[in-house]
Amino acid sequence: MRRWVKSRNEMGAIFGDNTTAFAYIDALINSKDTEQCRNNLKLAPNVDMAVISTVISVNTFTKNGNTVTIWMCSDLRDTSFKVVIYGDMPKELESVSQSSVVAVLNPDLTGYSKDNLRSISIKQCDNVLLIGEVDGVQICRGVTTNGTRCKNVVYKHHHGDFCKYHLKSAFATSKTATMPNKPKTEDIMKHVHGTIEEHKMQVVTNNITLKPSEPTDPKKIMSKLGGLGSLLNRVAESRTKNIQVLQTNQPVKVTVTDRSRDFENAVANLKNIIQPDHKNNKRVLGLLQLIAKYINHVDKECIKRTGIFKMCISLLDHPVEVIAIESLKLRRAIKRFMQTPEKDNSTPTFVVGQKREETRKTIANKSTAKDLETIISATSDVDAYVHKENIETTKRKLEALERMDKANEFKRTVTEIEIVASYCHDCNAWTEKPNPVCKEERHRCSAKKCKMAYHMNGNVKAFNEAMRACIANKEFDGISPDEAADKFVTLLEENGIRYIASDFDATMIAEHSGGYCEIQADRDVLSSVTEHFKAVARRLKKSSIDLVIVTFSDDWHFKNHPSYISGPRMVNKALEFSNCDADIKKVYDFYPSLWKNPTQYKILGLKAPMPMHKEYHLRSICSDFNVNLNEIILIDDDLDNCTNAKKIGAAVLHVTKQGFNLSEVALI
């Protein structure tokens, strides 16, 4: 080190802290994200991760009125990355320049930049610590082919005075560099062999005695040809004596049974080597690629019997990105191969009998019935009743309606009450006061009769009983999606449900995106919105119930990716490609495992890590739209998410198969 900014005692305290672990730069930039790096290093949630690097260049510019500083950092070997700092630089970091050694606490990877370098985004400069300056960082002394000075930075204690490119070019031999007076080896050998052949020919010709030619004898020539023919026959017989030719017209074939057996053996081997500690990653990847080759050569029963589809789903969360992507490809290949099963064409059986009377559990309360009758009887003489209204009367009405909710009185549904509201013409504002008076003096006010909407709290218990009866009686079977959607939404309206929170993967769409998609390559996934979801979306346009999407497809870590989309962008593309006209109020895209670090969950205003499942999604709906949990119904294909939502007080509907279908749902 050339200069220390932090003393030896301060550095000893930093390295001796058990709550901070230092990671290699290679381990960080070779990971998919910061969370995967922490998992590979096996760091506890309460342990912070830090990296130390050397700054080799500093660039500061202004973008949209904001100051952006980019540090090009290196580990002084062969690994480089960028550090992007947004906002003004604090005074203690203004002196950072070439050769400065800095430490970054809890770095946040943002993906690859245009020059194929990983970037780290820093929005809080408190996480950056200046340690000192290192000696030996300098510019390469080489000269480029254009005659200019090389701009590569080298660490002379490790690389020397020249970068690796100039060192490589210095020791490279030119292809055209040859000795001018030295003959080639091939030419020498040709000359030697030619001289030897000429010498042999000269010796032979010296020993030859030329004789005059004699006339040819036809009999001698024919006898020599006959002897040559018999010799050729004996040679052919001796060569084919021990050869046996197997004559058959049936080529060797590989049967379907053999391929099915190989497929089952490969799946069994994959099942045996999958371990919780994620060992044998190379064997897992090889078996996934081998199984993908057998998919189109085995029958569907064999695929169902082996359970390979569930194994692929379990591998989607594998820490090794290549294995996760390969399992996603295999799962999609299986999904394409396994076509939709044929419908049962058997004749349905109808039970003819007396229609059962609809019964509802009613807890009658004399005081409640009396208050309700008082409210409704007021319509007989509206004008006289409105003049007698005051704030205390309106308060008693609301208290009566609250007592109705607590007593589960849903036989008569009150959705609005009549009040007298005041309007100030100068303030252009309405107030719920019967007397036309404004706080400001000399303002013109007037009173008007109007109706105030009242939303009853959702009755989850009553909805579960009614929905369970519909499922048991198979009332959603054998009818069109629009008819089923009308019956379902009407049931929600009668029980005070105000928001439908639907999952995206395997619920809104029949496929599973794996958390992200490519727009063109995954068009089949994005165009798989179910017909029952489209029908419910059409029915909600005539209802006061709103629709939101709650998903684990977190767009925070894919917002800067050049080709992948997730979160709201993926939901909008699915609506576009599936021709679904749905009015979605908001998309809540959070994956709890990615919001465990304090630097991450504090961005959302949380004081602790995000709770698992979809509790944060549902509570965000309550705070954003001023509703209660018992006024929300969660529709999800994950049983754990449904169990958690039921535990905190929301209504739930479990999707049992691929995609939302009212004839294939269940209550838990």
What's the SSE blueprint?
Layout lengths: L2 E2 L3 H8 L4 E3 L2 H5 L4 H8 L6 E16 L2 E9 L5 E7 L13 E6 L2 E5 L5 E5 L5 E6 L3 E3 L13 E3 L8 H8 L13 H23 L10 H22 L16 H18 L7 H14 L5 H7 L1 H7 L6 H17 L28 H12 L4 H7 L2 H16 L9 E9 L4 E3 L13 E9 L6 H13 L8 H14 L4 E4 L1 H5 L8 E2 L4 H4 L4 H10 L5 E6 L12 E2 L1 H11 L6 E6 L8 H4 L13 H11 L6 E5 L2 H9 L3 E5 L9 E2 L2
Parallel strand pairs: 2-3, 5-8, 15-17, 15-20, 17-19, 20-21
Antiparallel strand pairs: 1-9, 3-4, 3-6, 4-5, 6-9, 7-8, 10-11, 12-13, 12-14, 16-18, 21-22
Helix pairs in contact: 7-8, 8-11, 10-11, 12-14, 16-19
Please characterize this protein's 3D structure:
Helix 7 (256-273) packs antiparallel against helix 8, helix 8 packs parallel to helix 11 and helix 12 crosses helix 14 (391-406). The protein has 4 domains: 3-135, Beta Barrel (OB fold (Dihydrolipoamide Acetyltransferase, E2P)), CATH 2.40.50.140; 257-337, Transcription Elongation Factor S-II, Chain A, CATH 1.20.930; 366-453, no CATH class; 460-666, Rossmann fold. Residues 175-180, 242-248, 342-368, 378-387 and 406-413 have low confidence and may be disordered. The chain is flat and about 145 Å long. The protein has 23 helices and 22 strands. It is an alpha/beta fold and 668 residues long.
